[in-house]
Design brief:
It is a single chain. By secondary structure, the chain is of the alpha/beta class. The protein is built from nine helices and six strands. It has a six-stranded parallel sheet, sandwiched between helices.
């Protein structure tokens, strides 16, 4: 069993954990789905959380029964169009988009000498961190362009530990998506799920909202044997 004192680093997802950028992704994907003639739904929006850009497009096309209607080149153009829409939507983002408690939590991690890395499937994460004013905390980031597998494969969180020069068991991964929690668990790290406990039931530790994410609460959860 992993003990709190053995934890040396934290590996973060971005969307829905650090900031509510997921709403911008959903709007951009919704725009593209409408263009492709695919019915948008809350279920589809949820299924896209934590999934890479091309995998998200494939899921949208499959939902509409259109997975075989486009060439790879056409799919890449649509994915690029979605990204352009997303970047336009991001122009108005600032520190007000940081989720409750996250700025204080990151500051406390830095003050207590924990290593931090970012494990986001979004290739725009450096831009988002800059606009939020949080880039200083994440000198180490997993490059999603170099990944061979998307979540729930453990690769992205395993690399999140590697870039910190830590073993998986020395790290805690923080996610808001089911596939992300599965990725953390498969990587051999302690998982924290932020959100609906029923959806994220496989997480080692559950918090319903980001404001509950503190070192004291994590220590308490690990000491009572939830991990």
């Amino acid at each position: 069993m992993v003990k709190f004192k053995d934890i040396k680093g934290f590996v973060f997802d971005l969307d829905g954990v650090i900031a509510d950028t997921s709403v911008y992704h959903s709007k951009a994907w919704h725009q593209l789905a409408d263009e492709l003639g695919v019915q948008w739904s809350d279920e589809l929006a949820d299924n896209l959380k934590g999934v890479s850009r091309m995998d998200s497009l494939e899921l949208i096309l499959k939902t509409g029964g259109k997975e075989n209607d486009y060439t790879q080149e056409e799919k890449e153009k649509y994915a690029a169009k979605k990204n352009a829409n997303y970047l336009d939507l991001l122009k108005g983002m600032d520190s007000s988009a940081i989720l409750p408690g996250i700025a204080d939590f990151l500051a406390s991690l830095e003050a207590n000498n924990y290593k931090l890395s970012l494990a986001s499937a979004s290739k725009n994460s450096p831009l988002v961190l800059e606009q939020l004013g949080l880039a200083k905390y994440f000198a180490e980031k997993v490059d999603p362009a170099k990944l061979k597998h998307g979540k729930p494969d453990p690769e992205i969180f395993a690399r999140g530990a590697q870039v910190l020069n830590l073993k998986p068991e020395q790290c805690i991964g923080v996610e808001d998506a089911k596939v992300g929690v599965e990725s953390i668990n498969s990587a051999g790290e302690t998982s924290i799920g932020i959100g609906d406990v029923n959806v994220l039931s496989e997480a080692d530790i559950n918090f319903t909202k980001t404001s509950e994410l503190t070192l004291a609460n994590i220590k308490k959860a690990m000491e009572v044997g939830e991990v």
